[in-house]
Specification:
By secondary structure, the chain is α/β, with parallel strands linked by helices. It is 50% helix and 13% strand. The strands form two sheets. Strands 6-5-7-4-8-9-10 form a seven-stranded parallel sheet, with helices on both faces. The protein has a three-stranded antiparallel sheet with strand order 1-3-2, with no helix packed on it. Residues 1-14 and 20-50 have low confidence and may be disordered.
Length: 421
Amino acid sequence: MLLKISNLQKTLFLRKLRKVFQHKTVKFSCASSHGDYKFKDTPKVSYEGLYVQDLQNLTEHFDESSFEYRTVQRLYQGLCSSDRASLAESITLVESGNSTKKHMGQTLLQSVMSQMKSSPRESNLTKFFEENVTEKKDTRTELRTMRIGITGPPGAGKSTFIENFGIYLTKKLGLKVAVLAVDPSSNRTGGSLLGDKTRMSQLSVEPMAYVRPSPSQGELGGVARNTMEALLLCEGAGYDVMIIETVGVGQSEVAVADMTDMFVLLIPPAGGDELQGLKRGIIENCDFVLVNKADGDLLPAARKIQTEYTSALKFIPRKHEEWRTRVRRVSSLNGDGIDDLWLLMIDFYSALLASGKFESMRMQQRKIWMWHHIHSDILQRFKKNLSVTEKLHSLTKLVENGDVTPGVASDILLDNFFNKN
């Protein structure tokens, strides 16, 4: 195929061709001295070659003198030096819906992940684990970070528990803690309260802690779309324990289990009867069930619900062969049960490390979230596609009037989307 272009357009032309043929190996050759260029697209030679080429396209998108390049470099240096302001700006970048900022965020994230893999920094958690549980650790896998997901119904005391637990980890154990709290977004206005940082007033001012509230932006499963990226940035900034607090609505808030090592369900003393413990979904995915507010007049009710859930969990298959889900009482008000809970968490990680399941579980989670992004990105591109938008209004009217079924309309739009691309 022969394309004729002016000499003044050479640079822009070649850049556009690289973008268009990112999925192929593209060869350029000069046909004449008058600016005629031929390009030949050949099948990719190997998977590894495609991977390297895609990464190169990702990192070479910004010119070294551009604002975008300098911003990414500045944030990367800030994350390497554990600067909290750089971490906050980096999370804002990956949460942005702007295409340029989204690309900047992915470039930054790729640099951080490459750095963590090639030259991992010394972890306080690794030191603590080796000093305290050496006799329980019979594997060479190092525990550099902990990822803990916490969910529960509204009013269970999640924020209060996370604050007391975070203060315990920072002040008593000397660990750096990052809290990613996801708040529900309004279906009508799109706004979100983001009040978790206000609730965690003591933990928010701790030098060893970082609290970041984020809106769910309509995402189902209790977490935001970019929570996984925010978690990785926190790890790149040197935090030892990452705690993710979900929206916490009910039985379906289980997406956090696909991005954390440990899934904790927090329930109030009036958290239902034994039948609640038999319900699938959130119960069969949790590693700990914590009965909160186990103090004062609520202590008898907390003991009762603990017994009922312990009995109910016997009929649910284990999530891990190496671990049986534990039911414990805690009091966020006076801190009762937090010491014992931490020891149990150490036992949990010891069991996963000893069995070799810890790393395989994280590998599986990365694959799950790749597909999560694929689903989300396809939907966004579908909504912005020109061939879709041209027919969307008229088809919507036909569906509203009952002239066309929703299924037929969706098939028409999908056919237009994929055929045009």
